[in-house]
Design goal:
mainly alpha, Cytochrome Bc1 Complex, Chain D, domain 2, 36% helix
Length: 175
């Protein structure tokens, strides 16, 4: 019987759990890191979200037309997980690879101070109303050719509705 190899000398492939944990750790370490697009080398962090009451959320949703008014906010929050690696969303949150999203709904495109937007987005003249946000989230490069946003888009209309409603409720001051 040959002696067993010491654990440190075994190939990584023979330690699948260790390999998976290592790769997960690497990917999480890269998640949410700022590329400092605004020239700030400090890492952007998400400030604690101001919790709105159910009444305040209902008031924000009531200002929106259907289907947004009856959107599933929990689904929108789950969908926002895809955005989190590039965007913060609370008032005072920092810019990351993408700009902070506080105040997005109703704002002019390229509105976030200190973020380096593409020239194409700055020149677009867009306002982030519900219809424009829907088109943007569906296919950013289809709406603004030359945008720096690398997201490929969200195809399901009901997903976009839920995300946009969640953004409205979570990136707007209470009514």
């Amino acid at each position: 019987m040959s002696p067993a190899r010491p654990p440190a000398s075994r190939p990584l492939a023979s330690r699948p759990l260790a390999a998976i944990l290592f790769l997960v750790g690497l990917s999480l370490a890269a998640c949410g890191k700022s590329e400092a697009p605004d020239g700030d080398d400090s890492e952007a962090t998400e400030a604690p979200a101001a919790l709105l009451t159910d009444v305040q959320k209902a008031a924000l949703l009531a200002d929106m037309p259907e289907p947004y008014r009856s959107a599933d906010l929990a689904k929108g929050e789950a969908l926002y997980a895809m955005c989190r690696s590039c965007h913060t969303y609370v008032k005072g949150g920092g810019n990351m690879t993408g700009p902070n999203l506080w105040g997005t709904v109703g704002a002019k495109a390229a509105y976030s101070a200190g973020f380096k937007y593409s020239e194409e987005l700055k020149a677009s003249g867009l306002t982030w109303d519900l219809a424009t946000l829907d088109k943007w989230i569906e296919n950013p490069r289809g709406l603004v050719e030359g945008t720096k946003m690398s997201y490929i888009g969200m195809k399901k209309p009901e997903d976009r509705v839920a995300l946009i409603a969640w953004l409205k409720v979570n990136t707007s001051p209470a009514n």
